Every structure is written in C-alpha cells, then in structure tokens.
What we know:
Layout: H1 2-10, H2 14-23, E1 48-50, H3 52-62, E2 75-78, E3 94-100, E4 105-111, E5 115-121, E6 126-130, E7 133-136, E8 142-145, E9 151-155, E10 161-167, H4 169-175, E11 180-182, E12 200-201, H5 203-212, E13 219-223, E14 234-240, E15 245-248, E16 255-261, E17 264-268, E18 271-275, E19 280-283, E20 289-293, E21 297-303, H6 305-310
Antiparallel strand pairs: 1-19, 2-3, 3-10, 4-9, 4-11, 5-8, 5-10, 6-7, 6-9, 8-12, 13-14, 14-21, 15-20, 16-19, 16-21, 17-18, 17-20
Amino acid sequence: MNDNKQRLQAATNLDELYPVLDALRMTPGWHKKRPSLWPEPRTRFQPLHWSYDVGRVALDQAGRWIGMELAERRNLLLFNPVGDNDYDSVRTLVVAFQMLKPGEHARAHWHTPNAMRFVLDAEDGCYSIVNGVKVPMRTGDVLLTPAYAWHSHYNEGQGNAYWIDILDVPLVHLLEPMFWEEHPERYQPVTAEPEEHPFYRPHARNRELLAAAAPQDGVRRVLLDTANEIKTFDIGFTAIEAGSRRVQPRTTASRIIAVGQGRGTARIGGLTTQWARGDVLAVPSWTPYEIEAHEDAVLLEATDTPVMKALGYYREQ
C-alpha cells in the first residue's frame, strides 16, 4: 500500500496520475472512457424479423444429422448481432425455433430461467412433462415452464413438431443466478395428467379470451394470467382485423412478437418488413413499432414489462 501511495504522491500532473489510478483499478469520474449516463434509453439491439418458413427448412436439414443423443434440444437460437453475441434476441429474452421428430424424446432438465412454448405445428401425440404434469402440445397452445421446474418433451405422433421457445436466459446471465441440472434418469415420470393446469394454456381458451376482449379500432388485446408461474415476462395475445393496425409508442420494455395467424407489415424503428404465420419479430427497448394486418391476424407477445415495473424502470414515451 505504501508503494501505491508513493506513486500517487510522485505524480506531478494529471497525465502521470491517470495511469497510477488505472493500475489501482480506479476510474476518475471526470475522465471516463465513455459516458455512464444519457438523456434517454439507447440500445445496440436491432429490430429484427425471422421467418418460420426458413427456420423450418433449417431445422429439417439439421434433423438429418442432429438427434437427441447429440443435442439436448434441436433448436435454432434467434440472435441479435450485438458485438460477438450469438444468443440473445433482445436484452432480457431469447427466442428459438425448436423441432422434435416422431419417436424422439428431449430429455429432462431444470434451470433457473423461466420458459414458455408457443406451438406452431404439432400432431396428436406431442406433449411436454413439467414437474411430472403431462400437458399436450397442440398447434396454437401455450405451455409454461417456471424457473427450477423439471421439463422434457415427447413426440409420439406421426410428423415433426415445431414450436417457438421464449426464455429469460439473457436476464439470468445479467443477474448471474444461473443453475442447471440434467435429470439423473433422463426420463421424467408422469405424476398427473389433468385436463386443465396453469402450465397449459390451450389454443381454444386463448381464442375465447381474445374474442371476449373489447375491440378498439379493429384491435383486441388480452394479457394471460401467468404471473404465478412466470414473474419475469408477460405473455399476451393481440388480434388485428384485416386492414387495421396496432401502433405502440416507445417503452422501456423489450418484447418478442410471434405470429400465430395472418400476414401483414411491421414497422419497428427503422425496419419495415412483411411477416407471416410462425414468424418472429424483435422489438428492443425504447423502439416504437406499428403492426398492420393484411388479413385477420393473431400475435403472441412476450415482454419484460414485469421486471421493468418491479424495479421502477418502466416508462412509456
């Protein structure tokens, strides 16, 4: 410590002082390499659009060589080109297309991050087991996998099953409380097979909720009651009549939009793109967006609004 004090005292000007401070792992607040505060939110994450048609072909190709004995999950992570990132879709969420072939079993594991599945195409016989609860995976269904829950996926149908995964893994990476464990026997036993369960939000019920919502300029919105299962992101549906549009000003929340039905145009920040069923859109924080439907459309949206509100950081423009 005395040597450090002597080096500091020996400095005759700021140019001599700065390298000594740097060696001590001290940064002068007036001499930072980059600003630490700015007038409004900014992000390097980009608005992006991923095509389900393209992703499905990619999964089919990968399925020729990657089986469940080589990979825990046959999935394609939809990443945002920020630096060397090849994982995060937006700051707090990651999205993936996943596929399971007939007769395959994605082995059981648990982890800190919360997860949800939005089923795009699946025949009878496809299902998940979450903490022993067997729940169907049918086209249009939403499945929830809370943090620390054992979960595995099975396809006992005749065709490939495809779905979208959304997880808060990037948030867990930022906060660092990551835990993960594989099931010691690979297979998770079924302890219950209920017709209704909080882990399972069937397509028909979601449509009923949407139909009951009051329309506003051709747009209906419903937020699913999932806070007891997943505390870090909201899940909701938006129905947009053909010719109508949803306009959303900037908010501090990051969001993922997955198309369950329809076609249209999205304008997200500086990106204008044509979307279709199964496609995924990324809306980074503080990015305005507008969704226009060319035909009747249904969109699933996942957003980290609960985290922003819990921390007192949620704001709208």
